[in-house]
Structures are given as C-alpha cells and as structure tokens.
C-alpha cells in the first residue's frame, strides 16, 4: 500500500512539474514563432506599401487590386531627374523702373528639371527580383491565404484623399498555435506589440500609410 502511495505521489509530482514547465516554456515558444512569422508578414506588407506609393505617384491614386499592382510594377518606370536653378534679368520690370540688372535690377529665379533617363520600378523598389509577384501571399508555412487589399477615399478637412489598406488577421498567421495565447495576442495594446486582431498597413479611416507594428520590425537587418 505504501509503495502504491509513493508511486501515485511520484506521478503527481511529475505531472505538476510538466505543467509548470509547460506554463513557462509554452509562452516562450509561442512568442518565438509569433515573432518569426510577424517579421515575414511585415516584410510583405512593406513591399505592398512600396508598390502602392509608386502606383499613386504615377497614377494619382491607390489601387485595391494586386493584379493591377503587379502589371504596374512589370511595366512602369521612374524618371531620373536633375533639378537646377537658373537666374536671369526681369527685363519687363527693369524697363518699367529704369533699372539695370547688372547694377541691382530685378532678377528672376527659375528651377529647371532635366530628365536624365528612366529606371524600371521593379529594379528601383525590389532590386531586380520578382518577389513582388508573391507579396500578396501570407508567407507562413502551411497557410494558403492572401492579404486583404482595399482602396478608397478618406475625407480630411473636406478634401478627398486616396487611401489603401492591406491586412491579415492574426488568426490566419497564428491559427495553429495555442488558442489561449492567441486570444491574448489579439487583445494586445502595447507600443512594443502589434495591436489588435490584424497586422496591417495603410488605413481607410485616416490619411495614413504606416503599419501597426512596433519600430523593432523597421530596424535594419544585420547579416549573420
């Protein structure tokens, strides 16, 4: 009888030890996987933002279509320009006031812009790679989904502004991890975390093209 009680106690101790270990290591493992996945997702969101900003620069508005973005990147080019200032006499004013530009007359200043050539946008933004063709995909192993992309108009001070938003739910990114920890992650409100239920860039509510991730994800990557 005594032996049975000892065995039961050892089993109970082992169980409690495992529970304690799991309660400590579980969140650590969750955070490691979360951070690694977030980094990949945010890289794609940055690529989407770069494409949207270039699209707007040339077309005057954002787009809610990945197909339009990819076609645009495949064909569009940035103009390489050089600005230079030039000065010359304002002959009309100088004649009217009897002045001489050489001795203190009116001078006009003009900025000239010379086009030096053109650079493909895909080379300028993506270093000649074709990763932009995959930027709409959620880059998490085992996840077959795309970012939700929308474009619209935001009114600010009675003026319309083109806007876009690309986002993905944390449920999609972390859906295979611990459900309790995932629920906590969706309620995060912190300057060091990704707030809310989504990771996103841009906004359809305010004039904003930033992302909702902390600055640590914008730090330069170090070569290993």
Walk me through the structure:
- The protein contains six helices and five strands.
- It has 224 residues and is α+β, with helices and mostly antiparallel strands.
- 42% of the residues lie in helices and 23% in strands.
- The chain folds into two domains: 130 residues; 41 residues, no CATH class.
- The radius of gyration is 29 Å and the shape is elongated.
- Strand 3 and strand 4 form a beta hairpin.
SSE topology sketch:
Elements: H1 2-59, H2 66-75, E1 77-89, H3 91-97, E2 107-120, H4 121-126, E3 148-156, E4 159-169, H5 170-174, H6 179-186, E5 198-202
Antiparallel strand pairs: 1-2, 3-4, 4-5
Which tags fit this structure?
224 residues; alpha+beta; 2 domains; three-stranded antiparallel β-sheet; two-stranded antiparallel sheet; 5 strands; 42% helix
Q: What is the overall silhouette?
A: elongated
Residues in β-strands, percent: 15-25%
Order of helices and strands: HHEHEHEEHHE
Low-confidence stretches: none
Q: Percent of residues in helical segments?
A: 40-55%
Q: Please report the number of helical segments.
A: 6
Would you tell me the overall average pLDDT? 85
Can I get a quick summary?
The protein is α+β, with helices and mostly antiparallel strands and 224 residues long.
């Amino acid at each position: 009888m005594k032996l049975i009680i000892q065995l039961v106690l050892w089993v109970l101790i082992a169980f409690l030890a495992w529970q304690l270990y799991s309660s400590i290591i579980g969140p650590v493992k969750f955070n490691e996987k979360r951070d690694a996945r977030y980094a990949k997702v945010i890289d794609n969101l940055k690529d989407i933002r770069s494409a949207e900003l270039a699209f707007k620069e040339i077309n005057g508005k954002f787009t809610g279509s990945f197909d339009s973005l990819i076609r645009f990147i495949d064909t569009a080019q940035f103009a390489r320009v050089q600005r230079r200032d030039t000065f010359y006499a304002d002959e009309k004013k100088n004649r009217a006031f009897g002045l001489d530009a050489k001795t203190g007359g009116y001078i006009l200043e003009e900025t000239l812009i010379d086009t030096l050539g053109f650079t493909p946008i895909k080379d300028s933004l993506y270093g000649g790679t074709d990763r932009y063709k995959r930027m709409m995909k959620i880059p998490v192993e085992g996840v077959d989904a795309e970012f939700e992309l929308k474009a619209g108009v935001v009114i600010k001070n009675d003026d319309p502004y083109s806007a876009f938003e690309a986002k993905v739910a944390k449920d999609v990114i972390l859906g295979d991890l611990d459900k309790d920890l995932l629920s906590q992650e969706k309620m995060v409100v912190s300057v060091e975390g990704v707030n809310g239920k989504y990771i996103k860039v841009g906004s359809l509510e305010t004039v904003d093209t930033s992302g909702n991730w902390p600055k640590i994800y914008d730090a330069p990557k170090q070569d290993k």
